[in-house]
Amino acid sequence: MKTLPKERRYETLSYLPPLTDAQIERQIDYILQMGYIPAIEFNETSDPEVYYWTMWKLPLFNASTPQEVLSEVQACRSEYSNCFIRVVGFDNVKQCQILSFIVHKPGASTYRY
Prior knowledge:
Residues 9-106 form the Ribulose bisphosphate carboxylase small subunit domain. The structure is a single chain. The chain has a domain at 21-44 and 52-104: Ribulose bisphosphate carboxylase, small subunit (Ribulose 1,5 Bisphosphate Carboxylase/Oxygenase, 2-Layer Sandwich). Helix content is 24%, strand content 24%. The chain has helices spanning 21-33, 66-79; strands at 37-43, 54-56, 84-91, 96-104.
């Protein structure tokens, strides 16, 4: 058995290869099905010491389809292509962030929309 090489990991699902459009859409669909409120955040770095990311617009309270969220991800990506971009899901009952995953890394051309 061999130890994996030390590598920087970025939040939930980071141990997997970059997500395809269909996989991102399914994750967002899960957020919506669970009744969580999706939001998009961006930041220049993904350091674990950075607790606060800048929110892209307001949370998407009225989003009912993954495409609505993906279109906002694309808009954020167009304006802040030099930043990490993640989708988060908020639980309005527990009043906390339940999940998050990165959908764009600066300089990575593997994330398509």
